[in-house]
């Protein structure tokens, strides 16, 4: 069943009913100010950090679903309704929601009155703009009231939800004309405030929640709206809100537009106050002056659309498959941008109060984002590296505002260090900027311990090299990519013969996944060192990578697939010898991506096993058979019910690893089949089963052992976005940045006969045509650049050249 449709021309997903299976959301903002907005107006706003600088409240895990947002109520006689349906849920005569790139427009009609709300965050300013347009489509004059409503958060979202004994006494506002200033905690603790305004005279206002809703009222039935008038309340403690009442009369065919703005203002320290507790309103007035007219707002929206058109033009594909085109050209790249900005911090599944930015997560997000705004990717790498410890390990998460490591989570995830090499290599391949390696970066944000970024990469590689277990495989630590595979929760103590090869004195569980990473990204590190002329060091790295390759073949092969790990008692995990959890997806993908077992014929066997044992109609599950009971030696992975999350769920994040692995072997048909199974555009017709948004990826889909097989969760903020774009752009379409230039290496379905691709790479535009007349799946028989045949499939980068015309013929 469909709940809307794609509009590829406008780059929108149009939702045609407010009653979607779950709230379907969008993200506003791409710099410092961000908002989440659902198809019915739910969501919240924050500046930089969803935990520490939250502007508005949102209630997770609550009923009714999607509780709190930016709401507009229309009261006409006894009828009260919202253009976005929520929260009154009054039945509308018509409804639509257009989720676009950085903006959302909701429209509703009731009794011949049309109302629309266009919401966006403008480029260059820290505010959310809501353009509310009302039109009388009837034949008689209409007089009615428009009420707005937002509920302010008291900045720190965790404290706001827990410290009621204090917070009920701190709420403070100020009202001036058509502006409400939320200045709670401005007196001494903060250097910022929020402003909420409308560009018209108002009939009334409210800033106290209880006055507006009623003591036992709710946003569905606010007392002030039922009574038809605001109370002009001034919040003193308790729960401050922002609400304006505008009285409107429209003649037949007449239309009026109002601009509502929610902004964040941060004063310079010397401008903090005019006098004690009195805010400096000058910067707020300057902000508001830029968005007082419809033309100003329309210009800002046009600038936002131009911004996105420019970004997305950096990679486009033309082919007969419209679903592939809309995902590659629009939605996948858009999601990569959003996920890069948010990491895993703020979605409808992450409250924004805990995780912050992930070390591993952010490094992976770079893979799908680096081509869009390379300079932002560069800064992110330096920020990530600064959370690393001197021994090469790292904080697993950090807060985006402070950029300091999250001590509550700490470190110990032993895959983290290698992801820094992965992200940095991706950046250098994209830009050719080896100068980033000379940047001085602190360890643990201590500038007295700063070293070059190259030294950080050395420490990353050395950490894995010197922390190996009894099979000469990398120690897993608390966990690797699979956070729930906690193999050092052993039920029996290893005997005294188990010795590690490095300085670690901790438990000795080992990870085949990290081994695959070590080989793959060790080869990238080796290439970087060779380019820099560190030949001896490069040779040492190469020798270590080769030794790890051999260790995987010797101790990591199970006969039909790669083992997942060895637990702390040196017993196999992910082996045919296991009662449950015989085969895992992760090593089959990453070991083959690293080239392990390809020439020996083992890689092909592993991928056959994936298709035989793990594949389903909705994607490849993480493991089989699922765990039916708790295993102390495995940890959290066995606490989930069968078919969910790490216990046999379909992790969309690692399905691309299998697709990429298939391209390594030249299997274009199979690679594309894997790609399509989790790709949202191909799942639109099963939205009643899938439930999450049909325009973005989800982290997880319920596996075949789950009661609701095919149901997705955790949409938007997932490494799936970056990995899928990496897969489809670099490995299926085959336009892959390399240290030496741009590689053309497609691995496509045999039915695809022609592709036209535009790729901006190192400030030059590559116009690429790929022809496949004989229907092969992989291989370039001839490659011409600007009309001249070249050897190989890497287009050498020429400094200063701004365009390349490329024609590639596929063949064996």
UniProtKB/TrEMBL annotation:
Residue ranges occupied by any Glycosyl hydrolase 94 catalytic domain in the UniProt entry: 307-734
GO molecular-function term, one example from the UniProt record: glycosyltransferase activity
Keywords: Glycosyltransferase, Transferase
Keyword Transferase: yes
Residue ranges annotated for the Glycosyl hydrolase 94 supersandwich domain, each copy included: 11-292
SUPFAM superfamilies: Galactose mutarotase-like (SSF74650), Six-hairpin glycosidases (SSF48208)
UniProt cross-references to CDD domains, sorted A to Z: GH94N_CBP_like
Top-level taxon of origin: Bacteria
Keyword Transferase included in the entry's annotation: yes
Swiss-Prot/TrEMBL GO biological process terms: carbohydrate metabolic process
SMART domains in UniProt: CBM_X (SM01068)
Name of the protein in question: Cellobiose phosphorylase
């Amino acid at each position: 069943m469909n709940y809307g449709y794609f509009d590829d021309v406008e780059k929108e997903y149009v939702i045609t009913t407010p009653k979607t299976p779950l709230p379907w959301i969008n993200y506003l903002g791409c710099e410092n100010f961000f908002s989440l907005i659902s198809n019915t107006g739910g969501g919240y706003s924050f500046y930089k950090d969803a935990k520490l600088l939250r502007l508005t409240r949102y209630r997770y895990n609550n009923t009714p679903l999607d509780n709190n947002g930016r709401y507009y109520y229309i009261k006409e006689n006894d009828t009260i309704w919202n253009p976005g349906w929520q929260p009154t849920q009054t039945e509308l005569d018509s409804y639509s929601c257009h989720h676009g790139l950085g903006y959302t427009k909701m429209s509703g009609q009731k009794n011949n009155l049309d109302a629309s709300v266009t919401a966006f965050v403008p480029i260059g300013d820290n505010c959310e703009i809501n353009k509310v347009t009302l039109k009388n489509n009837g034949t008689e004059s209409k007089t009615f009231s428009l009420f707005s409503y937002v509920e302010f958060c008291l900045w720190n979202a965790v404290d706001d939800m827990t410290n009621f004994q204090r917070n009920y006494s701190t709420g403070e506002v100020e009202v001036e004309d058509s502006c409400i200033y939320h200045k709670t905690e401005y007196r001494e603790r903060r250097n910022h405030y929020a402003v909420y305004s409308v560009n018209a005279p108002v009939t009334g206002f409210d800033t106290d929640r209880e006055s507006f809703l009623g003591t036992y009222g709710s946003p569905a039935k606010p007392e002030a709206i039922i009574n038809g008038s605001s109370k002009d309340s001034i919040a003193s403690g308790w729960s401050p809100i922002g609400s304006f009442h505008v009285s409107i009369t429209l003649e037949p065919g007449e239309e009026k537009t109002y601009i509502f703005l929610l902004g964040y203002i941060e004063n310079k320290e010397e401008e903090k106050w005019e006098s004690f507790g009195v805010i400096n309103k000058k910067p707020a007035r300057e902000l508001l002056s830029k968005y007082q007219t419809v033309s100003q707002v329309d210009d800002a929206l046009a600038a936002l659309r131009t911004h996105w058109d420019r970004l997305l033009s950096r990679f486009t594909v033309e082919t007969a498959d419209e679903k592939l085109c809309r995902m590659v050209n629009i939605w996948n790249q858009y999601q990569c941008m959003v996920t890069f900005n948010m990491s895993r911090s703020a979605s409808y599944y992450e409250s924004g109060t805990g995780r912050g930015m992930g070390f591993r997560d952010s490094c992976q997000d770079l893979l799908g984002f680096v081509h869009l705004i390379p300079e932002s990717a560069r800064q992110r790498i330096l920020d990530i590296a600064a959370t690393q410890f001197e021994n090469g390990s790292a904080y697993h998460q950090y807060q985006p505002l402070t950029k300091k490591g999250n001590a509550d989570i700490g470190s110990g995830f032993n895959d983290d260090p290698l992801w820094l090499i992965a992200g940095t290599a991706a950046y250098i391949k994209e830009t050719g900027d080896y100068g980033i390696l000379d940047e001085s970066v602190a360890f643990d944000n201590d500038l007295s311990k700063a070293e070059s970024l190259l030294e950080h990469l050395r420490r990353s590689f050395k950490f894995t090299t010197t922390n190996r277990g009894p099979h000469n495989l990398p120690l897993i630590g608390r966990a690797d990519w699979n956070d729930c595979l906690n193999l050092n929760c052993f039920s029996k103590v290893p005997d005294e013969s188990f010795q590690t090869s490095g300085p670690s004195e901790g438990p000795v569980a080992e990870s085949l996944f990290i081994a695959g990473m070590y080989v793959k990204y060790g080869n990238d590190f080796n290439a970087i060192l060779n380019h820099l002329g560190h030949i001896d060091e490069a040779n040492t790295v190469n020798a270590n990578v080769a030794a790890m390759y051999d260790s995987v073949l010797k101790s990591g092969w199970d006969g039909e697939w790669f083992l997942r790990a060895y637990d702390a008692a040196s017993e196999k995990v992910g082996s045919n010898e296991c009662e449950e959890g015989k085969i895992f997806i992760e090593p089959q993908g990453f070991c083959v991506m690293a080239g392990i077992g390809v020439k020996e014929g083992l890689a092909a066997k592993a991928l056959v096993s994936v298709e035989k044992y793990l594949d389903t109609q909705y994607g490849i599950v993480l493991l089989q058979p699922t765990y039916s009971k708790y295993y102390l030696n495995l940890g959290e992975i066995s606490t989930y019910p069968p078919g969910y999350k790490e216990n046999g769920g379909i992790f969309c994040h690692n399905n691309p690893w299998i697709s990429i692995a298939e391209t390594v072997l030249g299997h274009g048909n199979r690679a594309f089949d894997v790609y399509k199974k989790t790709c949202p555009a191909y799942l639109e017709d099963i939205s009643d089963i899938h439930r999450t948004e049909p325009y973005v990826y989800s982290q997880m889909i319920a596996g075949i052992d789950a009661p609701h097989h095919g149901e997705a969760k955790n949409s938007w903020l997932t490494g799936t976005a970056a990995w899928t774009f990496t897969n489809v752009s670099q490995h299926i379409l085959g336009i892959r940045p390399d240290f030496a230039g741009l590689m053309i290496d497609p691995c496509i379905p045999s039915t695809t006969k022609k592709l036209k691709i535009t790729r901006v790479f190192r400030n030059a535009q590559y116009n690429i045509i790929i022809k496949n007349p004989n229907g092969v799946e992989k291989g370039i028989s001839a490659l011409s650049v600007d009309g001249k045949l070249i050897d190989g499939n890497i287009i050498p980068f020429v400094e200063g050249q701004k365009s390349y015309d490329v024609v590639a013929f596929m063949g064996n």
